[in-house]
Automatic annotation (TrEMBL):
<keyword id="KW-0411">Iron-sulfur</keyword>
<dbReference type="InterPro" id="IPR008254">
    <property type="entry name" value="Flavodoxin/NO_synth"/>
</dbReference>
<keyword id="KW-0479">Metal-binding</keyword>
<keyword id="KW-0456">Lyase</keyword>
<dbReference type="InterPro" id="IPR007197">
    <property type="entry name" value="rSAM"/>
</dbReference>
<dbReference type="GO" id="GO:0010181">
    <property type="term" value="F:FMN binding"/>
</dbReference>
<protein>
    <recommendedName>
        <fullName>S-adenosyl-L-methionine-dependent tRNA 4-demethylwyosine synthase TYW1</fullName>
        <ecNumber>4.1.3.44</ecNumber>
    </recommendedName>
</protein>
<dbReference type="Pfam" id="PF00258">
    <property type="entry name" value="Flavodoxin_1"/>
</dbReference>
<dbReference type="GO" id="GO:0046872">
    <property type="term" value="F:metal ion binding"/>
</dbReference>
<dbReference type="InterPro" id="IPR013917">
    <property type="entry name" value="tRNA_wybutosine-synth"/>
</dbReference>
<keyword id="KW-0472">Membrane</keyword>
<feature type="transmembrane region" description="Helical">
    <location>
        <begin position="20"/>
        <end position="39"/>
    </location>
</feature>
<feature type="region of interest" description="Disordered">
    <location>
        <begin position="245"/>
        <end position="298"/>
    </location>
</feature>
<dbReference type="InterPro" id="IPR058240">
    <property type="entry name" value="rSAM_sf"/>
</dbReference>
<feature type="compositionally biased region" description="Basic and acidic residues">
    <location>
        <begin position="263"/>
        <end position="280"/>
    </location>
</feature>
<dbReference type="InterPro" id="IPR034556">
    <property type="entry name" value="tRNA_wybutosine-synthase"/>
</dbReference>
<comment type="function">
    <text>Probable component of the wybutosine biosynthesis pathway. Wybutosine is a hyper modified guanosine with a tricyclic base found at the 3'-position adjacent to the anticodon of eukaryotic phenylalanine tRNA. Catalyzes the condensation of N-methylguanine with 2 carbon atoms from pyruvate to form the tricyclic 4-demethylwyosine, an intermediate in wybutosine biosynthesis.</text>
</comment>
Length: 653
């Protein structure tokens, strides 16, 4: 009996202890189940990747799908960048060899080619593009290839340019260099190869390098290196002309396709020399590591990509829930909770990283509190719109119905964190929803200042009633297909509107119903300077720019030119600016010095490019002499901005 009592006492003590510590036990069990689910999910995904039918048709890094590989070759285009003439000579020799195969061939100097137009056309032309480029002093490209290489570099590093921009383009690269210059040996060829690959172009063969240093040249001279590569290229070209037989396994890494199955002799030649390729890849990785690391710390997700990312999250969630039907009822809810938690965390992370300080609305709109709004809430001064037009900054809402833009301006004060595009590609939110959420989010941001030291209670209450909307937050608001309805809704609520457009959508300007004040950004006065400063996406950007100014002249409402002066870039074009002003005949001209917003990988601007206020004043005075019908009306020194008004406009005071 004593033994039984002792046993019962022991079990009773254990049960009581377990009950008292039940929280820790539940946590341990939950952690174990979660860990098991993650392991099973990872294992299942790995198996699916190996066994899932059709994976061989996926696009790998730098490898085209069988459909693209089986396409016959329409011709060959040879692009060369040469300083001493060697690359040009090689290009002509290669052209003669290709001609012997009865294929059309074209030899193009990179200096005579617009890369954005020229390369984009090749994504669907079925041509093979060959790039013969030399490395010149200090690892720089030849002068004739400088712009070509600069454009490729910017396109590859600019996240707003789609990574599939050159998908469908098939290419091969032969670099010319001298290994005596160890630090810069063939850097241009290597970088060009990498940039093309980053834009989803497909290598047809491994990059080759010619060496002027006969002591180190693989074949004894750069000419022999070229001849050896040319023979391989022609063999590869013949295989492509007949139709590629080798499927891509989808396991490509930087152009190395490790496909299983039988390969033709030509394919074997293509894969020959793997160790040499691995060495060059290692060099490439070491060259790009610092750039990629720098980019990773400031990585930003495009608004247009959020839908795809969340779609993948939902698929993963469905896979989890379907794949573990054997989990108990409580386990099922645990899995669902984990998925919801991960999805919520991802949402928060994306929104935080993408637009710090912005409030996103729907899928393509945004609102943000301006620093001048905060200033006026404290009883301090307002922005230049308050000085020029009487707009109360604390009652102004800065918003946009389109985060996307058709330009990549060097002075973009949003550091290029918005998507770009030339047409509307997003799921469209209704204007009523956008306006309601914009007002709510704006008011919520205002309410957060309640009780903050220095904020005046009367100003805060006034700020809750929005009286003005600046449609200039970021992007191109005129791209929004329902912009007229959105503007009408604002006006119906007694909210005035200042809308800014970047002069790339002339037809949309013509169709736009009257706003309180319509702005056009005139960032340069010549085609070349506009290309350098605004970096527009449209190929016919200059004609669109001029047509937009003409469309502005036709508007029967108040119009404004907004000039942004960038020192050493566009401050010496007075006469050309005067001609453009005569074209659009605006009521007002706002001339503002560029605002330096800090370092950006997408821009080379520094504080040296910011003009002093005195320099802006001098520019406006000179411009006024060329435009007798305009006069200086006002200035806002804090914003480094001056206002010119047409004589037909009557301003108070």
């Amino acid at each position: 009996l004593d033994v039984s009592m002792d046993t019962w006492s022991y079990f009773h003590t254990c049960l009581v202890s377990m009950w008292l510590h039940r929280f820790y036990i539940y946590s341990a069990v939950a952690f174990g189940i979660s860990l098991w689910i993650v392991i099973q999910f990872t294992t299942t995904r790995t198996k699916r990747k190996v066994t899932e039918p059709g994976t061989e048709y996926k696009l790998g890094n730098g490898c085209a799908s069988p459909q693209a590989q089986e396409a016959h070759v329409a011709g060959v285009k040879i692009f060369y960048g040469s300083q001493t003439g060697t690359a040009k000579r090689f290009a002509k020799a290669l052209a003669e060899a290709v001609t012997s195969l009865n294929l059309p061939v074209e030899v193009i100097n990179m200096g005579d080619c617009d890369p954005e137009d020229g390369l984009a056309e090749e994504t669907s032309s079925r041509n093979i593009c060959v790039f013969l480029v030399a490395t010149y002093t200090d690892g720089q490209p030849p002068e004739s290839a400088a712009w070509f290489c600069k454009w490729l570099e910017e396109a590859a590093s600019d996240f707003r340019v789609g990574k599939g921009f050159l998908q469908g383009l098939r290419y091969a690269v032969f670099g010319l260099g001298n290994s005596a210059y160890v630090d810069h040996y063939n850097t241009v060829g290597r970088r060009m190869d990498r940039w093309l690959w980053m834009l989803s172009a497909s290598r047809i063969m491994t990059r080759a390098e010619g060496d002027c240093n006969v002591a180190q040249s693989k074949h004894g001279s750069i000419e022999a290196d070229f001849e050896a590569w040319k023979a391989k290229f022609l063999t590869r070209l013949q295989v492509l002309c007949k139709g590629e037989k080798k499927p891509c396994s989808g396991k490509c890494k930087k152009g190395k396709c490790k496909s299983s199955g039988k390969q033709s002799k030509e394919s074997s030649d293509h894969e020959h020399g793997t160790s040499e390729h691995e060495n060059t890849e290692a060099e490439e990785l070491s060259e790009t590591s610092s750039e990629e690391e720098a980019g990773s710390t400031e990585s930003v997700i495009d608004v247009e990509d959020l839908g795809n990312i969340m779609g993948h999250m939902k698929k993963a969630k469905v896979l989890l829930l379907e794949g573990y039907g054997m989990v108990s009822h409580s386990g099922y809810h645990l899995v669902y909770f984990v998925c919801q938690f991960l999805q919520a965390k991802l949402n928060c992370l994306m929104v935080y990283v993408l637009f710090s300080g912005y409030k996103l609305i729907g899928s393509h709109s945004g609102v943000k509190l301006c620093r001048w709004t905060k200033s006026m809430l404290r009883g301090r001064g307002g922005c230049y719109k308050h000085t020029f037009y009487g707009i109360e900054s604390h009652r102004c809402m800065e918003a946009t119905p389109s985060l996307a833009c058709a330009n990549k301006c060097v002075f973009c004060w949003r550091h290029h964190t918005n998507p770009v595009g030339t047409e509307w590609r997003w799921k469209m939110d209704q204007p009523e929803v956008i306006l309601q959420e914009a007002l709510e989010k704006h008011q919520n941001m205002i309410r957060q200042f309640r009780g903050v030291a220095g904020v005046k209670a009367a100003r805060l209450e006034e700020a809750l009633a929005v009286k003005h909307c600046a449609l200039s937050l970021v992007g191109e608001p005129i791209m929004y297909p329902h912009i007229n309805r959105f503007v009408r809704l604002l006006h119906q609520q007694g909210i005035s509107t200042f809308l800014v457009t970047n002069a790339q959508f002339p037809e949309e300007i013509r169709r736009l119903e009257p706003v309180t004040q319509l702005y056009v950004s005139v960032d340069a006065s010549t085609k070349e300077s506009l290309r350098r400063i605004d970096r527009p996406l449209f190929k016919d950007f200059w004609q669109r720019f001029l047509d937009s100014l003409k469309a502005l002249a036709e508007k029967q409402q108040r119009t404004v030119y907004r000039l942004t002066l960038v020192k050493a870039w566009n401050v010496d074009e007075l006469k050309a600016y005067a001609d453009l002003i005569s074209l659009g005949k605006p009521d007002f001209i706002e001339v503002k010095g560029v605002t330096y917003c800090g370092e950006s990988s997408a821009s080379s601007l520094t504080m040296a490019n910011v003009p002093w206020h005195g320099e802006v004043v001098s520019f406006v005075q000179e411009l006024a002499r060329l435009l007798p019908e305009y006069g200086i009306a006002c200035e806002h020194e804090h914003s480094n901005c001056l206002l010119m008004a047409h004589s037909k406009v009557s301003l108070p005071g």
